[in-house]
Amino acid sequence: MKLVMAIIKPFKLEAVREALTELGIQGLTVTEVKGYGRQKGHTEIYRGAEYAVSFLPKVKVEVAVDSDIADRAVEAIAAAAKTGQIGDGKIFVLNVDRAVRIRTGEADSAAL
């Protein structure tokens, strides 16, 4: 099993959710986060005063999948989240040793 974690732009969340649903992935976790990468934030003007925004709003999407569809999940996320602009985000894939569904006690792939 794999945990696919993606940091994406907030307005791309619905497109990513739809892409994962088309693959048959049923559940995902979404967290609102802030951060920066190469763009190092940006400057904005508010009431005539310029100020720096160091941390940009992002969305972290986490989904646990079977190892055999992890690559397809990564490709689906990348295609749905891509704008071609700096700050599109990153995708990380981690190994999952064990998963347990609390309600039924099902383990590993059955718990997904």
Automatic annotation (TrEMBL):
One Pfam family it belongs to: P-II
MF term (GO), any: ATP binding
Subunit structure: Homotrimer.
Name of the molecule in the record: Nitrogen regulatory protein P-II
Keywords assigned: Nitrogen fixation, Nucleotide-binding, Phosphoprotein, Transcription, Transcription regulation
GO cellular component: cytosol
Recorded coiled-coil stretches: none
InterPro entries named in the record: N-reg_PII, N-reg_PII-like_a/b, N-reg_PII/ATP_PRibTrfase_C, N-reg_PII_CS, N-reg_PII_urydylation_site
BP term (GO), one: regulation of nitrogen utilization
Family designation: Belongs to the P(II) protein family.
Superkingdom of origin: Bacteria
